[in-house]
């Protein structure tokens, strides 16, 4: 008697999804970066093609949304998504306060006189400029991709869930991205506050900030008397106690910020910088000290990691090449030292690996179906031996149902959530595009 064949349920294959992405998502991402670079090559074409591209992408997403099958999964992921947004905004607020502190604590005179640190990466790039063909040097200098491009590339990746290019829910990968970003920004804040490093651009603070010329009282007492005198440094190490007399400095300006007045000592405002602490923080920008590690590179690496895990393929390789291009340009233009870019790359990779519990590209429904299949395998064999077609059909239905998502929400709630999500996400796209277009 021939051995009965066990019928395995047909599982969705990644190949069809990847084929769709190869024809759509990868080309759309490349088109976005290429069209935006036309602003340098042909501004007239850029002014026409960029709105057309964005309109086409928005219309495609809106047209696909009613046919998306995983809105219930998106709805379940909404609360963690909103929580990650709140966490990320809190991390950015902490970072902005710290950026202002390290920019103002030493005073403007220190920024003018502090020499940049020796950076062998900068030396290497300058030497390569003398040896490489001019066309290669021009390519390395070109502003092919900047901060807002990486943000938009991730948003495109998240929207691709509508076309089954990546695993649902799309809010799941967005939650992981923002949560990882928040952790990375907090670690970065702790790092650059711990040791204040001079900027690779000594003129930056004078051009960007209105800060007092003299050091903060903390620096006046604990740093200035021991900054250059080797005997004074040896003595303070020996006694482990500040001993030098503080020189005469102007009094600190202390506005009345109500409950937030404790920030006066941290932010060091000046009379002409606005009436509120929040107004002052809006001018924090990217800081003028060297901020270890690079925040721009952290965003770039997290975007590349998200594409690599969720999508893969040739476009992910291209994004990693753009990450390396961005790193050398950060160093070349002296926005950061080489160490900042190196640390940002491996910290971003490690953080993304550590937050895989939030969202993973692995198909959980496939895993559930296979587990259910293993559970009913003996029953399926007996049914096949007995030629019990009805029992085989019922068992296969159990396997298929094991991989399906539980709805748990009314159709009206799902439709309302879908409409709100599309509007909210498109608004975020516009805000990110306008607020980060200057890098």
From TrEMBL:
It is found in: Membrane. GO terms for biological process: ceramide biosynthetic process. Keywords: Lipid metabolism, Membrane, Sphingolipid metabolism, Transferase, Transmembrane, Transmembrane helix. The chain crosses the membrane at residues 20-42, 48-67, 79-102, 147-166, 298-323, 343-361, 413-433. Belongs to the sphingomyelin synthase family. One of its GO terms (molecular function) is ceramide cholinephosphotransferase activity. It is a multi-pass membrane protein. GO terms for cellular component: endoplasmic reticulum membrane; Golgi membrane; plasma membrane. The keyword Transferase applies. Signal peptide: none annotated. The keyword Protein transport does not apply. It comes from Panicum hallii var. hallii. Its main location: membrane. InterPro entries: Sphingomyelin_synth-like (IPR045221), Sphingomyelin_synth-like_dom (IPR025749). This is Sphingomyelin synthase-like domain-containing protein. It comes from the Eukaryota. PANTHER family: SPHINGOMYELIN SYNTHASE-RELATED PROTEIN 1 (PTHR21290:SF25), SPHINGOMYELIN SYNTHETASE (PTHR21290). Residues 287-354 form the Sphingomyelin synthase-like domain. The lineage of its organism: Eukaryota, Viridiplantae, Streptophyta, Embryophyta, Tracheophyta.
């Amino acid at each position: 008697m021939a051995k009965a064949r066990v019928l395995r349920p047909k599982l969705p294959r990644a190949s069809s999804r990847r084929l769709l992405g190869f024809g759509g998502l990868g080309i759309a991402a490349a088109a976005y970066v290429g069209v935006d670079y036309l602003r340098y090559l042909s501004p007239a074409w850029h002014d026409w093609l960029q709105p057309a591209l964005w309109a086409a992408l928005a219309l495609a997403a809106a047209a696909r949304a009613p046919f998306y099958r995983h809105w219930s999964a998106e709805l379940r992921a909404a609360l963690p998504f909103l929580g990650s947004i709140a966490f990320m905004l809190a991390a950015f607020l902490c970072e902005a306060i710290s950026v202002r502190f390290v920019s103002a604590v030493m005073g403007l005179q220190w920024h003018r006189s502090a020499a940049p640190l020796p950076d062998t990466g900068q030396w290497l790039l300058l030497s390569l400029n003398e040896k490489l063909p001019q066309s290669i040097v021009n390519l390395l200098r070109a502003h092919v991709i900047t901060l807002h491009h990486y943000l938009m590339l991730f948003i495109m990746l998240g929207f691709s869930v509508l076309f089954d290019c990546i695993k649902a829910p799309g809010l799941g990968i967005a939650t992981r991205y923002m949560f990882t970003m928040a952790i990375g920004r907090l670690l970065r804040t702790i790092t650059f506050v711990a040791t204040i490093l001079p900027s690779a651009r000594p003129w930056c603070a004078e051009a960007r900030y209105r800060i007092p010329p003299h050091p903060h009282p903390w620096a006046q007492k604990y740093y200035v008397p021991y900054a250059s005198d080797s005997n004074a440094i040896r003595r303070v190490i020996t006694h482990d106690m500040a001993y030098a007399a503080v020189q005469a400095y102007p009094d600190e300006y202390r506005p009345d910020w109500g409950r937030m007045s404790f920030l006066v000592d941290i932010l060091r405002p000046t009379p002409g910088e606005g009436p509120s602490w929040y107004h002052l923080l809006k001018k924090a920008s990217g800081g003028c000290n060297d901020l270890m590690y690079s925040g721009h590179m952290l965003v770039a690496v997290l975007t590349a990691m998200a594409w690599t895990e969720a999508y893969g393929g040739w476009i992910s390789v291209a994004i990693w090449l753009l990450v390396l291009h961005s790193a050398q340009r950060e160093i070349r233009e002296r926005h950061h030292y080489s160490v900042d870019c190196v640390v940002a790359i491996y910290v971003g990779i490690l953080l993304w690996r550590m937050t895989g519990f939030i969202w993973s590209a692995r198909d959980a429904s496939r895993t559930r179906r296979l587990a259910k299949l293993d559970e009913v395998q003996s029953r399926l064999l007996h049914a096949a031996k007995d030629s019990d077609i009805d029992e085989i059909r019922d068992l296969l239905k159990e396997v298929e149902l094991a991989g399906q998502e539980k709805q748990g929400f009314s159709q009206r709630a799902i439709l309302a959530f879908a409409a709100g999500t599309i509007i909210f996400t498109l608004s975020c796209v516009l805000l990110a595009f306008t607020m980060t277009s200057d890098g």
